[in-house]
Model the fold of this input.
Amino acid sequence: MEKTLFILLSLVLCWSASFAAERGIKRVEIKTVSGETVGLYEESHALVIGVSNYTGGWPKLPGVRDDIVSVRKVLEEQGFGVEVVENPKNRIELEQAFNSFIQTHGRKPNNRLLFYFAGHGHTIKNYGEEMGYIVPASSPNPNRDLDRFLDSAMDMQMIEVYAKRIRSKHALFVFDSCFSGSLFALSRAIPQNISYKTASPVRQFITSGTADETVPDQSIFRRQFISALQGEGDTDKDGYVTALELGEFLQKTVVNYSKNAQHPQYGKIRNPNLDKGDFVFVLPKAALDLGSTSKTAVSVAVVAAPLETSGLQLETLIKQAESQEQAKEKLKQVKKQWAAWQSR
Done:
């Protein structure tokens, strides 16, 4: 039985990867209030990176493991194919994750890409300028070894390089970390309704705090990020959450719930060719049915993929099976659920 379960679990991993890839290939249509189609996402892909097991003098962040699970779930409900990277040791491993993801998914114009990082961030001042850094697992505390920190952490200038390297029109970078937001122009604009401008190319950024703030292990930011994508971030009740709406929502709620200890920043890249559009999430149909006051209808709503098709749920189903035959039957049922969801 143990050998059989091992084989079935191996199949689960293969099927889970397949489900994730196919999940991202569901077309999403964006329409104005009047019903005019202004944008179309052919595929939706997300790279979620979490660092919890710090070994170089930074406080460990065990809560990041829960963050990864929760963020992955809400993005899959949004129709994204999600790739997860946990505890990259250094800048090289971070670069490998970004490069591989962009090479695979970032070359089709009508894709939307989302990057989510949960872990420590740090800002260093150099000759009057501030530079933010993403901190991988083995980076030393810069107060103890600045040179090794600079050699191993990833500076935000590299994020700008990746943002420009992407050929897909829309990319959103979300950092549950605190550091300087000098890479992007801070936004104070009021989110606008969906229009033809929405489909223009854009690179957007959201961070959970400023340079001199500390991210708590139990992330308020992550909880509010999920609430926003489940409907609370739709401030104009049109069935969509744009990145500008998301940034505004996070700024208000995180400041409130953190009792003014965290101040999220959001904005667009400082580039006139990549700052006109707006990344768009389409609310799941269930969220739209829960009391939206909009008089306009959203013609295309993302319907959440069956929960059982996630890797964690599949593995649990197999382990709970009382026999080989029962395990096989459960997998058949999941495949039927997946086929039904894909045909929507």
Residues 307-342 form one domain. The first helix runs from residue 2 to 23. The first strand starts at residue 28 and ends at 31.
